[in-house]
Amino acid sequence: MARDPYTVLGVSKSASESEIKSAYRRLAKRYHPDTNADDPKAQERFAEVNGAYEIVGDKDKRKQFDRGEIDADGHPRFTGGYQPGGGSGGDPFAGFGGFSGFSRGAGGARGGEAGAGGGANRTWRFTSDGTSGVDEILREFMNGGGRGGTGRQSGFGSGGGGSERGADLEVVVTVTLEDLASEDKLRVSLPTGRTVDVTLPAGAEPDQQIRLRGLGHESLTGGPAGDAILTLRIAAHPIFTRDGANLKLDLPVTLYDAALGAKVRAPTLTGSVNITVPPGSSSGKTLRLRGLGLPSKAGGKGDLLVTLLIDLPRELPDDFLDMMREWREDHPYQPRSPG
To answer: So which domain of life are we looking at (predicted)?
Structure first.
């Protein structure tokens, strides 16, 4: 009888699906026959790992095993209900009720399982939905047989289309607005240890995914590698906000620059530029600097929208306050709508 599958994989009975899958991948890679051709013990261990994963890696079989309905070989456990009559020439399962899902095929008993009656070898397979297991039995023969050979096959082996594609690798990548604006490729380090240079798509959006073909997990069966799937996160910027391909910036200016007009410096993602503040500019006035935004999906670049904010000093001189009082008396105006 096979060992407890949890023990074989080195996980607890409360292990999650991802923990079980991770343990299986690690052990299968370690003991795979392709890398242990001269080590029969490794091949036996590989078969044992595959057999264990067939039980606890399958949700339904795992539940059946945990309830004690099947054993570590995947065979149903019988607790009673046997009626005499099996005999050497009868059906050894004829007396068991409540199991309609048995199928049997001629030849090829698994790993020395004796067939019923006169030593004739028969393979028995239980399926929970009551359907025939003939297809599964044929698939076992196509993939190299059962336990009597190098191990129970689970998509492994070189024949019968057994090579499987490696698993995809999912990676979250946080990028900055400077990254999106740059024409340089972004260097990304993958969990596999590989470093790749990635071209960010124009107009990239948060949670957008980039698929890198063949850069995922290696196949354990000689098949093609999986893909690396990058999910983009866009980091908040300390001074710019994003509006599609446009960027927005709040720019503090002095009262006298706003009143008299001036040339002032304004930051962009690639450096600073001079902008013209028109005379008599109010706080909240927006200036558009064309082509200084982010790359657009439609081609070209968006704009930088600069909103002027008049900034008064913390301490206002007395003569300035006197002038404001005089101005209020002589030149009153209403910036807000009445009411």
So the answer is: Bacteria
Same domain for 106 and 17:
yes
Mean pLDDT over 43-47 rounds to 85
Question: How far is residue 161 from each of residues 155, 158, 181, measured CA to CA in Å?
Answer: 8, 7, 46
First to last CA, the chain: 89
What is the pLDDT, as a whole number, of residue 106? 37
What is the pLDDT, as a whole number, of residue 34?
Answer: 75
- pLDDT at position 263 is 96
Q: How many CB atoms lie within 10 A of CB 135?
A: 12
Here the CATH number for the domain that contains residue 17 is 1.10.287.110
Taking alpha carbons only, the member of 30, 104, 281, 294 closest to residue 183 is: 294
Residue 284 domain flag:
yes
Pick the residue with more confidence: 189 or 77?
189
pTM of the model as a whole:
0.51
* Domain match, 192 and 297 both: no
Structural domain including 300 reads: 240-330
Helix (H, G, I), strand (E, B) or coil at 84: coil
Residue 36 domain-assigned (yes or no): yes
Q: What gap in Å lies between CA 218 and CA 190, rounded to an integer?
A: 13
Q: How does DSSP classify residue 174?
A: E
Q: What is the pLDDT of residue 339?
A: 61
Residues 44, 45, 51, 54: what is their CA dihedral angle, to the nearest 10 degrees? -140
Structural domains of the chain, count? 3
**Alpha-carbon 93 to chain mean position:** 46
133 and 262: one domain? Answer: no
The three-state secondary structure class of 4 is: coil
